[in-house]
Amino acid sequence: MEKADTRTSILTAAEKLFSEQGYEGTSTRQIAREAGANMAMINYYFGSKDGVFTEIMTNSIKEFNMQLISINEDKVSSMEKLKKVVNRYVYRILNNIPFHRMMHREFLLAQRPEIFCRMKDAMAINLNMIEGIINEGIDNGSFKKIDVRMLIATITGTISNVAVFPSKITAGSKLDINIPEDRKILTERLIVYLNDLITTYLTPQK
Fold this sequence. Notes:
This protein is mainly alpha-helical and 206 residues long. 79% of the residues lie in helices and 0% in strands.
């Protein structure tokens, strides 16, 4: 139990520091101090800072994958499945914006090719599952035929834009995405918008 707690503490501390300071700005010494562990434990469990970073990224992607599997198994319409995916993804990103911004930065820079490729492959699995839900709707006639990849890019891109560049949405208002009450308003607003978007875009014309 003590070993498991130490491992979890290291991951929790590293995620916090990576989110606040970025990968390059975070050292293993800082992670060890934040976690209340020693550097030997980091090397023992993860091998290096790269190993810690990869574990955090992989766990995040796997966690969302489990949610997608659960949604896909629900006995509901394709539209309801897709709306659940959108809702989960919005809450996931907007409830941990610093972490998402860090991931966004890493994927844009792609300075660590090995990590980048592993993350890209893991994310492709989730992308394929979302594609499957949309294609299911197209096949059963509840969705019209559309460019599936473009729709997914539209949904994820919109969510990412709100998280990374919130001023595009909040300019001219008093809303501040860093304030929990305002973030809740923006989260609900984004979900309503995206649900309306997919309903309007995917519903076949009579």
